[in-house]
Specification:
The protein has 19 helices and 15 strands. The chain is an alpha/beta fold. The chain has three domains: 185 residues, Rossmann fold; 214 residues, no CATH class; 33 residues, no CATH class. The strands form three sheets. Strands 2-1-4-5-6-7 form a six-stranded antiparallel beta sheet, covered by helices on one side. It has a six-stranded mixed beta sheet with strand order 8-12-13-3-14-15. Strand 10 and strand 11 form a beta hairpin. Helix 18 crosses helix 19.
Length: 558
């Protein structure tokens, strides 16, 4: 994935009020006086890519600071697939947009292509896009795990290493499952009986969702059955009563009167019709009451059955769960666990077969990986040593030692240990035992130069890693960085004119006072302005000889 930082916008970060920067491809040098704010650009980039935020960075008087960036890639398919896995929007026309806001009042927010994301996603994306190196940012070089990955990349064995790690994880996973199943065998008898009892008891209860509410309702009705019958009988008798004062007789008398009234006065026909409807509704109501009474069960046996069912439901709830649904789920799980116990032996045999196959793959891949590492280690040492010679370590020693592990790990059957002796006559020591940041910086640059073709991170950022060097070594450092820019976009903060002159573009960072506040500004240097800046870097004096030297440095880059 070849991607370049197309633009970076910073608002209200430290001394930056509102800054928009388009660095361009290739090697980009960032220069300026000490304290002008050059590292603010790197700090903004780090903030954008998930580094820890400090609210003190918010510009005084502002409520929040924001950093935005646009990356351009010719082929975003691999990146889009990763973004989709993280739940964010894919790139549009090869454009990747990142934004992070840090608020003084609350927590910050971050976005990828307009989609909100977590800080961990932003940081993971940053690891894929940018590799930053400064005077104190070389801890990764001290890790034997990282050194082993560097060796694998040089050997072209990264895919084999990944396959081995997967086989190793699969072997351990299967071994863990087998161990768990065997551990269960110790109490299998008791556990089997408990599961069988639970599964059987719940299955025999024949539970159904909503049953408890239905049983309670029926139990309540059954307990009042005799009284319900009495009331229903009274209601039926009242509706269907005959004789003086009876509802049916009274209604019949009313209907006869209404018919006579309608015969004598046509306008009273509606009254006659209404009484007919009432008579029909009373008859229907009488039938409804009769049917309701027929459904009432006042049998003591039914009441006892309902009480027993209610007691069973309560007992099951106490033992297996607070609801009928939970009890049913517990029964299903018990049945499943019981089946697993009954087939445990078969499963163990199957898993052992799978584990043996995975272990066989792991052993085969470990041997291939070890062979590739053993072949590549001296070649990597020779290549890095050659690069170090050009960077001023004329008689330094660099080696790659392989340390066999007592037991294979996810990284393989051995560690790689980078060893270095900067001065002749001294024994090589592990790289992490070297204290000089200048030495470590040049070792890192040598490694990056050797691995330029294998390094998949598109943007390399160097923050004053050329400290403590000068003269011809500084020229070589600039040449190495320019060489890296053939496969990467390279940003470099430098105080060395030799390095700045090697850049395809050069930007100057300055502090400006507008009468009220101090702000940091960034401007591209071209033509005489770039010559003047290089002359300043050469000796601080803008003289004819300094400008001539600056033009010579620029001309030497072709």
């Amino acid at each position: 994935m070849l991607a370049t930082l197309a633009s970076l916008r910073i608002r209200n970060l430290a001394l930056v009020e509102d800054l928009a920067w388009q660095p361009g491809p290739g090697l980009v040098a960032i220069t300026g006086e000490t304290g002008a704010g050059k590292s603010l650009l790197i700090g903004a980039l780090q903030l954008l890519l998930g580094e820890r935020a400090d609210k003190s960075l918010i510009r005084s008087g502002a409520d929040a600071c924001t950093v935005e960036a646009a990356f351009e890639t010719a082929d975003s398919r691999e990146l889009d697939a990763w973004l989709e896995e993280q739940g964010t929007e894919p790139c549009a026309d090869g454009q990747l947009f990142l934004k992070r806001t840090l608020s003084a009042a609350g927590s910050g927010r971050q976005f990828v292509n307009g989609s909100p994301c977590t800080l961990s996603v932003l940081k993971a994306l940053g690891d894929r896009l940018v590799d930053l190196h400064g005077p104190h940012d070389h801890q990764s070089l001290f890790s034997r795990e990282a050194q082993t990955r560097v060796l694998d990349a040089y050997a072209g064995a990264a895919a084999v290493a990944g396959d081995f790690a997967a086989a190793h994880r699969e072997t351990n996973r299967l071994a863990g499952e087998i161990e768990d199943l065997r551990a269960l065998e110790q109490d299998a008898t008791l556990h089997r009986e408990m599961l069988a009892h639970a599964a059987r008891e719940i299955a025999e209860a024949k539970l159904s969702p909503g049953e408890e509410e239905e049983v309670v309702a029926r139990l309540r009705a059954a307990g009042n059955g005799q009284r319900l019958l009495e009331l229903s009988s009274q209601l039926e008798a009242a509706l269907g009563a005959e004789g003086d004062g009876g509802l049916r007789q009274a209604l019949a008398d009313a209907i006869r009167a209404a018919r006579e009234l309608a015969r004598l006065d046509q306008s009273a026909a509606a009254l006659n019709e209404a009484l007919g409807e009432v008579a029909t509704r009373i008859a229907d109501l009488e039938n409804d009451v009769r049917r309701y009474a027929e459904k009432i069960d006042s049998d003591p046996g039914t009441l006892r059955e309902l009480e027993a069912r209610a007691d069973l439901l309560q007992a099951l709830k106490r033992k297996y769960g607070g609801t009928i649904e939970e009890i049913v789920a517990r029964g299903a799980q018990a049945a499943q666990d019981l089946e697993e116990i009954e087939t445990r032996g078969e499963k163990i045999a199957t898993l052992e077969k799978e584990a043996s196959a995975a272990a066989g793959r792991a052993v085969k891949l470990a041997k291939a990986l070890s062979a590739a590492r053993a072949k590549a280690a001296p070649a990597l040492a020779k290549a890095v040593t050659a690069e170090l010679r050009e960077l001023g370590f004329l008689r330094a020693g660099f080696g790659v030692r392989l340390e066999a592990l007592a037991e294979a790990r996810a990284q393989g059957a051995e560690w790689a240990e980078f060893e270095f002796a900067p001065n002749p006559g001294e024994p090589v020591k592990p790289l992490r035992a070297i204290a000089s940041s200048g030495e470590i910086s040049r070792v890192m640059l040598a490694l990056k130069s050797v691995l330029a073709g294998q390094d998949g991170v598109p943007l390399l950022v160097f923050d004053e890693i050329d400290a403590n060097v000068g003269g011809e070594v500084a020229v070589k450092v600039g040449q190495k960085m320019r060489g890296l820019s053939a496969a990467h976009q390279v940003l470099c903060i430098t105080h060395l004119p030799q390095v700045a002159a090697a850049a395809h573009r050069q930007f100057s960072v300055t502090k400006e006072y507008d009468g009220n506040r101090t702000v940091t500004a960034v401007g591209e240097l071209v033509g005489t302005a770039r010559v003047a800046e290089l002359a300043r870097m050469l000796g601080g004096q803008d003289t004819d000889s300094a400008r001539a030297h600056a033009r010579t440095l620029l001309a030497s880059q072709g």
